[in-house]
Fold:
Amino acid sequence: MPEPDLFGHVAPVKQSGACADYCEPFRQFYSAYPNKSEKHNAHTKWHQLERSRLLPPLESLLRAVKAQQQSKQWMQGFIPNPAKWLHGHKWADSLPAPPPPARHVPPTPPKKPEKEPELTAAEMKAQIDEMKAKWPTSPYVAHLEKMYAKKLEGTR
Structure:
């Protein structure tokens, strides 16, 4: 047993089997974990799980942390502290499947309107005569006559 100091305090004896500071596997886990809080509590929980043989291999823990970093909850910043994550055995949680990547579907081009069939000269004349009968003073009738006249000249 160690001797007391001048004030009568005795330094605690380190337990065998426990890490003096933080053991290497815990350091690796803590360094990979995104929420850097309550390190001492997380270390304590680590050793409790280790002693009870409930702690999975380090690789499994690191894979679970990496997978959960892609979860909606963690991406929104709701990351439990590492002690609670270990206490809740969160490495065993199943994550919802990520949504499939959005496919880029090019917009469908608008359909081209079908071309109206060309009117014959007789149909053009009949249309103008009909409009003159209905609207004798309409400037549109004169415009239509000029338009049809140009079309008829182009077809000759």
